[in-house]
Amino acid sequence: METDWEFEVGGNAPVIDACWAGLIDLRRFPERAWQLPETAQFPALAEALAKLNAAASPVWTSKCDFWPHLNAGEFDPDEMDAPPGCAAHAMGCYIDLLPRIDQQWAVPATVAAECKRVCGLLRAVPQRCCRADLVIRRAYVTAERMDLGVTAYLTSCGESSAEAERTLRTALERFADALCGHSTVE
What we know:
Blueprint: E1 2-7, E2 16-17, H1 37-41, H2 43-52, E3 59-67, E4 89-99, H3 108-123, E5 130-140, E6 146-158, H4 161-180
Parallel strand pairs: 1-5, 2-5
Antiparallel strand pairs: 3-4, 4-6, 5-6
Helix pairs in contact: 2-4, 3-4
């Protein structure tokens, strides 16, 4: 599986806002993951959200989205290790991740090490036509406190939309497993 990580914390870079008005705290209400509009289109996203918000998870999620159709200019088949002809359809999603424990990612080196660890685990997964990009960002964990968080972008492609969906489903499952400390190889 192709993967990479980066810092995006300066200037006008996006900020993760865990205090937004529409937040549904899936740590307290995990069953609501299947009621989100984003997961209605892609139930595998609900499964990943439930795993990422479980009590044993080192993270929790504050926001997500799902894109059922990516246009040709919105992804690069080469960056997904896609063989010729396997990029006719593409889709993607993102999940904003925050540390479960206060100050867990207060030091940039700590969150960078976690991103490197997850990327290393995912690179060992023999899966083509997908990638995960982890972007370290500033995050409002509370209205008064800014920390660091990670926006995880996952994309997939395939000869058909069903194939792209299967690949994204597997990539999300392996991503959640890698973050939560489970084996990512079957």
